[in-house]
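Minutes, project huddle
Topic: does the predicted pose make sense with adenosine-5'-triphosphate bound?
PN asked that the exact inputs be recorded in the minutes so nobody has to dig through chat later. Recorded below.
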Amino acid sequence: MKKRIFSGAQPTGELHIGNYLGALKNWVALQDKYESFYCIVNLHAVTLPQDPKTLRQKTLDLARIYLAAGLDPERSTIFIQSDVPAHAELTWVLSCIARMGELERMTQFKDKGKGNTERAGVGLFTYPILMAADILLYQTDLVPVGQDQKQHLELTRDLAERFNRDFGETFKVPEPYIPPVGANILSLQDPTKKMSKSDENAAGAIFLLDDADTITKKIKRAVTDSGTEINFDENRPAIRNLLTIYQLLTGKTADECVAHFVGKGYGQLKGELAEATVEFLRPFQERVKQYDDDSLRKILDDGADKASSVASTTLKTVYERMGFN
Ligand code: ATP
Ligand code: LTN
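Predicted holo structure (tokens), as shared on screen:
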């Protein structure tokens, strides 16, 4: 039996190169070795206000991006979270064993709630419980995510262990898979922050659907550090970030990248990085256009059927353990 993977992304904003390098790229690489479930997490999306028409469109757009990135519906189950009601149902059960204190410690809530807990939605606060339900329903072994999700994974593990202890062995306790390189791609404008789709400053992120001109401009305008050397020095996060993106897009080793830029200036690094990014994204952007809405719906409906059968088995056991049936 193959081990299982579960992961997902939110159908909000535009996916950027950080989402790709930190998550999607690894999903594609792991889909052969694992039985994989890749979800479009629209229930998570509504923890912040969304326009329904836009959300519907973004959901299909994200499915296109999954496929163009190389997820194969023959090998991976690709589906929309709201199509499988067990996600919301298990969330309720887990909400009753999660503690206020452990949710209050989640840094993403503090960031996205902008420190104003009076005004923040309750869903934004309980969001990590929904994420735990996503993962635990599939008896997941491995969860490939970027660095920013590490804390949510720890909560997921804690909830699984608590439920197993209190109600009997029910859930597999999942491991995170955080890639050694690329798990935290930084903003091109502010390398103290991660590259983010919700950043007000669009110049900080290279979006997967940006055109060649925009990509080149963003990279040329990226902030740099003082000094002139091009290496992976942790104290020079801006250059390290540009070099990391270059490394991952070209497939070179870290040493090869450093050797390649010895004696060259920041301008050269930016020029070559822009070229590598444009070259990488061109065929990807061609593939995105290939999928019409009808064929996407078919893939997503099939995915929801497969996901439902696994999820409902786990939920049934949970309900039995709880004394519901
Ligand atoms: P954002 O903060 O950009 O709005 P998100 O993390 O809220 O993004 P998702 O689209 O759901 O939204 O994230 C999908 C995946 O991309 C997650 O596994 C996340 O860890 C990863 N990811 C997000 N930003 C980065 C980044 N800057 N570097 C590496 N991985 C990232
Ligand atoms: N919380 C994640 C998206 C997400 C997810 C998941 C990732 C929702 N459910 C389950 C991995 C596994 C985010 O905001 N990036």
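Observations noted during the meeting:
- The chain has a mean pLDDT of 96.
- Residues 4-178+293-322 form a domain with the Rossmann fold fold (CATH 3.40.50.620).
No decisions taken; revisit at the next huddle.
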